[in-house]
Every structure is written in structure tokens, then in C-alpha cells.
Amino acid sequence: MKLFSASQIREIDQATIENEPISSIDLVERAASTCSDWIIEAYDHSVSFHVFCGMGNNGADGLAIARHLALAGYSVQVFAIAHRSSGTSNFTRNIERLAEVKLDVHYVNAKKEMPEVDETAVAIDAILGIGLDKPLRGILKDVVQAIQEGYDHVISIDVPTGLPSDLDSTIKLSECVEATHTLTFQFPKLSFMVAGLGEYTGDVHVMDIGLDEEKIHDIDTPYHLTTGYDVVGIRQDRKAFSHKGDYGHALIAAGHKGMLGAAVLATKACLRSGAGLVTTHIPSMGCDVLQISAPEAMVQLDHSETSITSIPIPKRITAVGIGPGLGREKSSFNALTALLEDVQVPLLIDADALHLMSITDSWSKLPANSVLTPHAGEFHTMTGVEFGDSISRLEAARRWAKDHHCIVLLKGAYSAICDSSGNVYFNGSGHPAMAAGGSGDVLSGLITGLLAQGIAPLKAAILGAWLHGRAGEEVAIDRGEHAVVASDLIDYLS
Ligand SMILES: NC(=O)C1=CN([C@@H]2O[C@H](COP(=O)(O)OP(=O)(O)OC[C@H]3O[C@@H](n4cnc5c(N)ncnc54)[C@H](O)[C@@H]3O)[C@@H](O)[C@H]2O)[C@@H](O)CC1
Ligand SMILES: Nc1ncnc2c1ncn2[C@@H]1O[C@H](COP(=O)(O)OP(=O)(O)O)[C@@H](O)[C@H]1O
Ligand SMILES: [K+]
């Protein structure tokens, strides 16, 4: 799915109005009825809705939603926030239409005019959407604060009020509605994808409002969100007369004393990727551990008992993954450097291997099209980008992928897969249950196995991240989000 900036979304809105054709007021009506349908499905009549509306089109959506909910028999109160002297024509027309359901509008000019809140009240935030063009001040700031303080449950329409939609917005986040649900029109907004901003949306629900498909197709954007639809066909169905040799042979180089579990996790995930054969190179002390926990894998033992010191590449290997639990010893660095010179097949670099390359500044040796899978900490070591600044981190990852002709899979809640042409594919699956040690080892084993099957590096990264996240979602349902460990993810790979 393509993701767009606020100005591109306006262009698509406009194209819809002109080409369908549909009037702006009818488009607002369509947007509002998709939201009210969703709300009616999700809430019974024991709740009462306090609908807060700005004076632009987001507010117009709110007024129309209020009308639909009143028609459906809900208790509804409507509050218009007087942040400017007059509303848009869509706003004014929807104010008039409230008379059809005998709803009054309460204009809020000061915080003290906010309603009393009881435990049945659910706030609907239709104050500002993609039109946010400056930080909230005055009455807007006060109202957002009052919503934050007063309501446990908030449904934001399109965008939580106060949240910039774009990644390059110059508006510093100050006051912002923290939504329970965000009903967003047609596309999640770019800011939803990054830490520090995405937290404000709560659960995101995409409302299809039938925007112009041709325009969506024609407008270029570097940003994409992977959905189940996007990964269909990346991995081919297995052929009836195929054999293991048809599905590649992966080499995993992982583990040192005290971190052999990382090698086990990566190996088991690689086996579950569909790769025909998996060989794991480990320190010799790991032999029994690996053979018992992953009997399907072949083991190649290092001369060293406790760490990896050289990595011969067996014949007919079709992809190599290096890094999980590798350790940071000089001898392992030497093994890594020799591997970089020898390797002729797709390569994935993760974890300690990324660290070793960073502290020795060995990036010039990186083979083109390699897949790197850093988390924020590893990416900080690679580039020096501050840990807390998710937008700069994303930009730096895009630059890095371009400069080094590689794929950077920046891990996080919406992992960002950056390619060498500047595209970013956010991963749309996943669950916070996955925020636990070893999850990343599973991902790197899985992607290595996909590379081994001949899937191109970008597609392997996209599919691997998707399957990994789906496993997290499924296991969180079955085990409960607190009890998930990385091994569980392997059991749920499909
Ligand atoms: N254009 C269309 O036909 C559609 C628009 N839709 C809705 O329209 C919204 C966008 O509408 P608008 O462009 O009217 O913008 P908003 O309703 O988001 O904002 C209204 C106006 O408030 C002002 N404003 C922004 N930030 C402010 C601040 N911090 N302090 C004071 N004033 C501020 C701006 O002048 C802005 O244009 C979308 O988010 C969506 O909810 C949907 O109904 C779908 C169709
Ligand atoms: N809140 C979250 N939501 C979705 N996925 C997450 C979340 N937190 C972590 N993950 C995923 O879990 C994995 C964690 O990887 P990583 O931090 O490298 O773990 P480790 O180093 O312990 O193996 C990544 O793939 C990341 O995308
Ligand atoms: K809003």
C-alpha cells in the first residue's frame, strides 16, 4: 500500500472530487458514514458520545458523524471549538444539518465550557486532521488538554488532533490527543509509522472512502506499507516433483560462548523459511546444543571452542546470514572480513556483525545488495544517529541504503525496509509481544532462508518482516502478550 504526504492526500481528494465526480460535501458525508458505521458496530447504546469538532473539514466529518450517531439512537452532544471566526462551507452545511436530528451545538471558547464527563462518555476527536499547520495554542491547546484529562476513551477521526501527518513537518509535537482508536481515511499517515509520533494513534483502522484509484496509482511516493496483499506470490508454491536442492542451502554463522541460543533461534527460523538445507557454523562447544535442538540442520564446527574464528563457505551455499550472538572478539571480526571477501551469494548481516563492522569502519567491504537488520541501538553504532530521534534515524537509514547499495531493515514497531533507490517499505504486521530478546535472531534466520531460496534481497526482507510480524500477532493471541518468547515465534511461522 502506498503512503502519502498530507499535500498528496489533498491532491487525491481533489482528483476524486473532479473525476468521480463527487462534491466535496458528499465526500465528507461518505467519509463520515464509514466512520459512523464502524462506531455503531463497535459500541452499544450504553455509551454517550461527546463529539468535538474543529471548524475545517475534519470538524465537518465530526458533525456528520454526530448526526449519524444521533439517527442511530445514541446519546450525542456536539461541541464546536471556536479556533477561528468562520468555518469551511462543509462545516457550515453540516452545522445546519444537525437540525434534522435536533442536535444543538455548544461552542467552546474557553476550557470552562467543556462538558462534565461521566464514565459512559466517549470522546470523538474531529478537531483537526491533516490540516494542522501550526502547534496548538489557546483554546485548541486547552481543549486537547481537557480531553486528555477527562476521557479514558477517545476516537480520533483521520488524525489525532495535534499530530503532524508528515515526517518532514516543521511543527514540533506539543499538545496532542492520545487516541484509543484512530479511524483514518484511505491511508495511514506517515507519522503513524515512527516511534515518538505513532504512539498517539492507539489502534489504527483504515476507512476506505473510495478515493480515486487512478490518481493513487499515478502519484509517486517513496513510502509504502506492507499488507498481506503485497506479499502474495513472493514465495512460490512448492512444485510436486521438487526436491530439497530446489529450495537453496543457507549458511548461518552465529553464536559464541554464552550466546549459542541466538544460533539456535536463527537456525530454527531459517529451517522454517522453506529453505531446502541449512548449515550452521558455530563454535565447537555448540555442537550438541545445536544438533539436539535443530536436528534438521547440519553443523559446521569452528576450530575454536568458544567463538567463531573462520567461516569456510561450503559448496553450493545459496545465501549466508551472519551475526546473531557472534560476539565481538577480534578473531570473529577477522572471520567476518574474510567472509566478506569470499562470499559470492546474497548476504545478511545482523547484530554483533553489524557492531564489528561499525567499530572498525569496514563498510567499504560490504557486498552490494546485502541485507542489514539493525535495531535502533545497532543503527546508532553504525551512524551515530541519536537513539531517540526516530525521524532522523529513518532518513539516515534511507541515505545509508542508497550510499552503500544495500537493504537496511531498521527494526521497530513498524520496521522500515529501505532500499538503494530511496524507497521505504514499512512493515504492517507485528505486535509488542515481540519486544523480547531473541526476536531479531528469528528474523535474521528467516530472511537468510528466504534469500537462500533465490528471493531477491528487497523482497526477502519485506516478506521476512511480514511473516515474522504475523507470527508475533498470532502467538500473542494464543499465549497472551506478556508470555511470548522468541522460540514461540518460530512455532508460529508459516
Ligand atoms: N477534502 C475532502 O474532501 C475531504 C476531507 N476530509 C477531512 O478533512 C480533513 C482536512 O480538512 P481541512 O483541510 O479543512 O483541515 P483540518 O480540518 O485538519 O483543519 C482545519 C483548519 O484549521 C486550521 N488550523 C490548523 N492547525 C491549526 C492550529 N494549530 N491552530 C489553529 N488553527 C489551525 C487550518 O487553517 C486548517 O485548514 C481531513 O483530515 C479529513 O478529516 C475527509 O472528509 C475526506 C474528504
Ligand atoms: N513493539 C513492537 N511491535 C512490533 N514488533 C516489534 C516490537 N518490538 C520489537 N519488535 C520486533 O521484534 C524484533 C526485535 O529484534 P531485536 O531488537 O533485534 O531483538 P534481539 O536483538 O533481542 O533479537 C524486531 O523484528 C522488531 O521489529
Ligand atoms: K482529528
Summarize the structure in words.
The protein is an alpha/beta fold and 494 residues long. The chain has two domains: 6-220, Rossmann fold (3-Layer(aba) Sandwich), CATH 3.40.50.10260; 231-491, UDP-N-acetylmuramoyl-L-alanine:D-glutamate ligase, CATH 3.40.1190. It has 16 helices and 17 strands. The protein has helices spanning 6-19, 24-42, 57-71, 89-97, 138-150, 213-218, 228-231, 260-271, 287-293, 330-342, 351-359, 376-383, 390-403, 439-452, 457-479, 486-491; strands at 48-53, 75-81, 105-108, 121-126, 154-157, 181-185, 203-207, 223-226, 249-253, 277-282, 298-301, 319-322, 347-349, 371-372, 407-410, 416-418, 424-427. It has a ten-stranded mixed beta sheet with strand order 8-17-16-15-14-13-12-9-10-11. Strands 3-2-1-4-5-6-7 form a seven-stranded parallel beta sheet, with helices on both faces. Helix 10 links the parallel strand 12 and strand 13. Helix 14 packs across helix 15 (457-479). The protein is elongated. The two termini are 22 Å apart. The model has no long low-confidence stretch (mean pLDDT 97). It comes from Phaeocystidibacter luteus. K(+) binds at residues 58, 125, 161. This is Bifunctional NAD(P)H-hydrate repair enzyme. Its cofactor is Mg(2+); K(+). In the C-terminal section; belongs to the NnrD/CARKD family. In the N-terminal section; belongs to the NnrE/AIBP family.
